[in-house]
C-alpha cells in the first residue's frame, strides 16, 4: 500500500523542525510497518492545527493530491491524532479522503479509520475530548500502551 505521511508543528521558536519531523515520521512508520511504504510527505511547519486543513499549505496540498484520480497514494498516515486535528476537523477530513478512495491511518487505531465502525467513531470522539482535558493525553497514552 502506498502512504502519504502528514505531519505538523506550530511552535517554531520551541521545536526543532528536523527533530519534530523525524519523530513523527518514525511514529507513522511504526503504524504502517509491513503494510506499505511512504511515497509522499506533507509537513506543515509553523501552522496551528486549529486552522482547517484547507488553510494549512501542506495539508491543502495533500487534499489536492488525494483528489487526483491518478492516485499517488492509497492512504494517509499521521504520527498522532493531535498533530493533525482539532476536535471538529477529523471526521470531515476523513470523509473527504474516503470520498477520494483514500484511507486515513491513525496510530491510536493501529491502522485505518472506518467511520462505519461504531468503535472507530467512539475512539475519534474520545480523542477529540482528550485535547480539552488536562492530563488526558497521558491517560490515553497509558491506556493504549496497555492494550
Textual characterization of the structure:
It is a single chain. Helix content is 44%, strand content 18%. The protein is α/β, with parallel strands linked by helices and 147 residues long. A five-stranded mixed sheet has the order 2-1-3-4-5, sandwiched between helices. Strand 1, helix 1 and strand 2 form a beta-alpha-beta unit. The longest helix is centred in the N-terminal third of the chain and has 16 residues.
Task: Calculate Rg over CA atoms.
Answer: 14 Å
N- to C-terminal separation? Answer: 26 Å
Topology as a string of helices (H) and strands (E): EHEHEHHEEHH
How many β-strand stretches? 5
Overall geometry: globular
Which percent range describes the beta-strand content?
15-25%
| Low-pLDDT sequence parts | 134-140
Helix and strand composition category? alpha/beta
Please, what is the average pLDDT? 86
Helix residue percentage: 40-55%
Major sheet: order of its strands? Answer: 2-1-3-4-5
- Tally of alpha and pi helices: 6
Described by strand count, sense and barrel closure, the largest sheet is: 5 strands, mixed
Amino acid at each position: 500500500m502506498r502512504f502519504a505521511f502528514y505531519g505538523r508543528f506550530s511552535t517554531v521558536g520551541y521545536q526543532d523542525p528536523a527533530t519534530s519531523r523525524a519523530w513523527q515520521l518514525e511514529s507513522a512508520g511504526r503504524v504502517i510497518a509491513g503494510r506499505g511504504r511512504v511515497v509522499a510527505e506533507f509537513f506543515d511547519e509553523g501552522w496551528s492545527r486549529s486552522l482547517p486543513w484547507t488553510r494549512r499549505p501542506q495539508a491543502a496540498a495533500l487534499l489536492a493530491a488525494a483528489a487526483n484520480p491518478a492516485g499517488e497514494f492509497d492512504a494517509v498516515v499521521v504520527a498522532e491524532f493531535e498533530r493533525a486535528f482539532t476536535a471538529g476537523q477529523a471526521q470531515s477530513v476523513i470523509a473527504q479522503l474516503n470520498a477520494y478512495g483514500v484511507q486515513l491511518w491513525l496510530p491510536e487505531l493501529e491502522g485505518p479509520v472506518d467511520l462505519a465502525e461504531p468503535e472507530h467513531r467512539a475512539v475519534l470522539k474520545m480523542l477529540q475530548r482528550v485535547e480539552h482535558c488536562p492530563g488526558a493525553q497521558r491517560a490515553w497514552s497509558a491506556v493504549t500502551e496497555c492494550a
